[in-house]
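Final paragraph of the annual report: two paired records, presented back to back.
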Amino acid sequence: MNNQSYSFMACDCDYDRASIVLFGAPYDGTVSYRPGTRFAPSAIRNESFGIETYSPYLKKDLEDSRVFDAGDLELSFGNSRRALDEIRAMTAKIITDGKIPVMLGGEHLVTLGCVEALALKYPELHILHFDAHADLREQYLGEELSHACVLRRCHEILGDNRIFQFGIRSMTRDEDEFAQKHTIQKKYTLEGLENVIKELKDKPIYVTLDLDVLDPAYFCGTGTPEPGGVSFKELMEAVHKLNELSIVGADINELAPHYDQSGVSTITACKILRELVLTMN
């Protein structure tokens, strides 16, 4: 990990006392359109000081939470498999130490490293996936390790009906047909989340949140903006509903801060991360 003197907001609890461990995975080696998500973890930390540690929605404060920010992994940028192995090793250490990993991407491929580690400990692992894109391609331009294929690779680990997808509004015909047979997909909106939460209450859950699930009107700082998404309020309320679940790991990914010079997309990512961590804590 990189040495650093700053952390996300008040996430400076000692590692031994922490129940949640944040770490950055600044990797964007397979992006299919606009690069830049490698800069997201540091941007999120820098901008997090622009918002309060206290959530008036949850009546909780990060200053009261046991969260440790481990900094960023130094990933093998030219080798996707090696980068995933490094993410998997970090995740395995965190869960072996009895803590919950929360990863800051990075492109969406980084999710696979976390899932590989968590699936070994939790054979009944299920995924809640918020995204504009299905990410179910078999391959993209001949590459099976791509952010466009990450949920397909996760399906190969978990099997049928263990991946629940929300907000999906962009896919190929093959992805659409695959999802109808193998995943539980709720297109376009976050409707139906309450029923899924009831179904998954007793299961170990991994939450992967691709921020381009938000409409570009609220979040333009991403490599693959997709019109027709959900609002910030809708996403935040969905995150709050996850408090009924047994979340064993999570990630937030696909912020590309340089495409929003106003900084609004980055501060939006900060606020969603704050609400997610406090919901889990």
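The closing record of the year follows.
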Amino acid sequence: MTTDNLKIPTVALGTWAWGDSGETGDGYFGSSLTRASLEEVADKAHAAGFTLWDTAVVYGMGRSETVLGEVLKRYARSDYQLSTKFTPQAAGSGDDPMADMLEQSLARLGTDYIDIYWIHNPADVARWTPRLIPLLKSGTIKHVGVSNHNLSEIELANQILGDAGFRVEAVQNHYSLLYRSSEDAGILDYCRSQGIPFFAYMVLEQGALTGKYSPENPLPEGTNRAKTYNGMLPQLKALTDRLAAIGQKHGAAAPDVATAWAIAKGATPIIGVTKPNYIDGLVRATSMTLSGDDIAELEALADAANVNTRGWWEKAMQV
């Protein structure tokens, strides 16, 4: 398998929040989504040419995959790409927990193959990576990626797959203006040198970099993201103000600029899409070119904010 036939989009569509039930405290975001509004999101995304959808078993413990599968029924399978994940920490106790989890994902998503199948977290690279090989050989998964792996774990996974004639074809880590550990650890450079696409999640830091939230208008109370980000909103103001100002020059908004920054760094951002107008922002972000000065200024303001947005599930990338 090579990336020759893996279509890498400029932006991927994230469905983490689709796993919420909408009840406060049930799910990460506390969102309230309807089937009709998500179908509108999907229609608008496909019309704009965004067709790679990213989900995972653990997003709502199957709810995100189920909802996504229902919404995508309206299209031919060849019109979109699916990205989902094996999470070792949620593995069952059968003879082949990865094949079992994949089978459940396929059923929920209403498909017989996955375009990119990821190992979500590196619980034991030597144990889990070889399990991908028979799934690749059978065609049930077309391409493989690793998520939240550090550089030595990515290299080990690549070596294990390489011995069987395959390779790591994508890396997905938390990467944003506020959290650049994959860059500092040399992972972006490694991906570039190996021709491996790098996917960035939490580019907007769950809304904290959109400029929508402030100390006066904090993230919704009762959600995990409020606990994480509300205390740092004062430190982020200079950065979000600058994102908005740069956006204004381009006829765009703050989140569009944060997304364009990730694209400029060579990443494919995975942007959570819960409202149709978010697709308009992705269109603006993908058509925007930031100057080197803009990028340097934004990174300096991000450094000055001096906040740590590493998720509880993430280990340090630098070892």
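Residues 233-249 form the longest helix (17 residues). This concludes the annual technical report; the extension proposal builds directly on these records.
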